[in-house]
Write a structure and sequence with these properties.
The protein is an all-alpha fold and 97 residues long. It has a single domain, classed as Mitochondrial import inner membrane translocase subunit tim13 like domains (Helix Hairpins), CATH 1.10.287.810. Helix content is 78%, strand content 0%.
Length: 97
Amino acid sequence: MDSSSSSSAAGLGAVDPQLQHFIEVETQKQRFQQLVHQMTELCWEKCMDKPGPKLDSRAEACFVNCVERFIDTSQFILNRLEQTQKSKPVFSESLSD
């Protein structure tokens, strides 16, 4: 192996920051799309009795309430998970006690 190929091989371990940022953004987009899909499916099943040319006021109110509850519940779960992780001791620390 010559010096140019060995230096490029050594660089394979480093991730391009722009590529890493792009992947993070795309992953966030995917997660958001999954949440929207879950919310749409859940609220559609709950609120839509029979599809028609126009959304009636009862169904509209149901959709609004469903979306708000979905967001509230998702936020509650995220907050609870954060609290749980913060209160847990690090695994290696708990073994040393």
